[in-house]
Amino acid sequence: MMGYRVIFLTNPARLYVKNQQLVIDNGDVFKVPLEDIECIAIDSMQISMNSYLLSRLSEYAITLYVTDKTHHPCGTFLPLLRHSKHLSVLKNQLEMTLPNKKKLWKQIVCQKIENQATVLKLCGIDEWKSIDVLKNMVKSGDPDNMEAVAASKYFKLLFGKNYTRTQDNFINPKLNYGYSILRSTISKYLIVYGYEPSLGIFHKSNLNSFNLSDDIIEPFRPIVDLYVKKFALKDEIDTHTKASLVNLLNCDLIIDNKLFACAKAIELTIKSLSSWYNDKNKSLLLPQIIDLEQHTYE
């Protein structure tokens, strides 16, 4: 059972572990059970910790994010503890045939496009149907690059006809920040479940250690887009926005017809990869976007 608490730190503090709890000492002392923590995001150059803490974070599969002097994510501490059947999982990855990769990539692209259409619909943009229909045009392996066609139309409908992902504006840093949190969380669960993140389904750059993460992230990206559109269009990215983007890991998504927090949905998607390797007729469990609601933990 993975944790669920998302901790975002911006002020000077000392972090250490005592009695299986993370202790945050910034003058006042706060304690959080390690087993309850999903991730820790540090946005300060004045936080100290020791190697014992890092060891315990790895043991509990807790992701640690750090930022640079400009307060942008620059590093992630990921666990190296592997699944007990890592070798068999790796063999499955290496032996995956091209037709099966194409079949899987089609599922991912179709769900991404459907989620993009849902975001437009939730934002009251009438042209959402023009994006949704594109998922029916995706072929095995997406040879016509319908993913890019949909993305180009989608972003212009969402953020304006002159918007591009390469612009220097208030929107892109927020999208990039949110995507980086999702990517790191996906990478963590890939490692926990024994996958080699560099071996992708569609992405295959020799310079990318997280090709598989960049495959899996695609249908999850629209949750970040939805938050930025609804709550963070104006002004530069600030501490509140960063904390909210990290906390998207606790927002509800539908997966396998049930409500789960985003972080749990990521875990279920990656876990379902194993079932897919054993039965290629199965569909990968992928998320469906709904409106932004914090998950309620019982």
From TrEMBL:
Belongs to the CRISPR-associated endonuclease Cas1 family. Its EC number is 3.1.-.-. Mn(2+) binds at E147, H203, E218. Keywords: Antiviral defense, DNA-binding, Endonuclease, Hydrolase, Magnesium, Manganese, Metal-binding, Nuclease. Homodimer, forms a heterotetramer with a Cas2 homodimer. This is CRISPR-associated endonuclease Cas1. Pfam families: Cas_Cas1. It comes from Ruminococcus bovis. Its cofactor is Mg(2+); Mn(2+). It is an enzyme of class 3 (hydrolase). It comes from the Bacteria. GO terms for biological process: defense response to virus; maintenance of CRISPR repeat elements. CRISPR (clustered regularly interspaced short palindromic repeat), is an adaptive immune system that provides protection against mobile genetic elements (viruses, transposable elements and conjugative plasmids). CRISPR clusters contain spacers, sequences complementary to antecedent mobile elements, and target invading nucleic acids. CRISPR clusters are transcribed and processed into CRISPR RNA (crRNA). Acts as a dsDNA endonuclease. Involved in the integration of spacer DNA into the CRISPR cassette. InterPro entries: Cas1, CRISPR-assoc_Cas1, CRISPR-assoc_Cas1_C, CRISPR-assoc_Cas1_N, CRISPR-assoc_Cas1_NMENI. Gene3D superfamilies: CRISPR-associated endonuclease Cas1, C-terminal domain (1.20.120.920), CRISPR-associated endonuclease Cas1, N-terminal domain (3.100.10.20). GO terms for molecular function: DNA binding; DNA endonuclease activity; hydrolase activity; metal ion binding.
